[in-house]
Amino acid sequence: MAIATSGTWLFSSALLMSLPAVTALLVINFAFGIMTKAAPQLNIFAVGFPLPC
């Protein structure tokens, strides 16, 4: 039972630590998508794809 509790704690801690970064990357990708639709001649995805890496 202690292993299951420890695994649950580890998973929830990792999720809570990664949530701000994942949310920020999601918002940035949505913003790049909107900018690409609004001004396709700027080719924002050429700049935006290297950011998450």
> What's the overall geometry?
rod-shaped
- Count of helical regions: 2
Strand content: under 5%
Number of strand elements? 0
Low-confidence stretches: none
| Helix and strand sequence | HH
Structural class: mainly alpha
Helix content: over 70%
Kindly report the average pLDDT value: 85
Mind telling me the C-alpha Rg? Answer: 18 Å
Mind summarizing the main beta sheet? none
Distance between the termini: 38 Å
Structural write-up:
With 53 residues, this protein is an all-alpha fold. It has a domain of 35 residues. Helices cover 79% and strands 0% of the residues. The protein is rod-shaped. The mean pLDDT is 85.
Question: Would you kindly provide a brief summary of this structure?
Answer:
The protein has helices spanning 2-38, 44-48. With 53 residues, the chain is mainly alpha-helical.
Blueprint (SSEs and pairs):
Elements: H1 2-38, H2 44-48
Search tags:
53 residues, mainly alpha
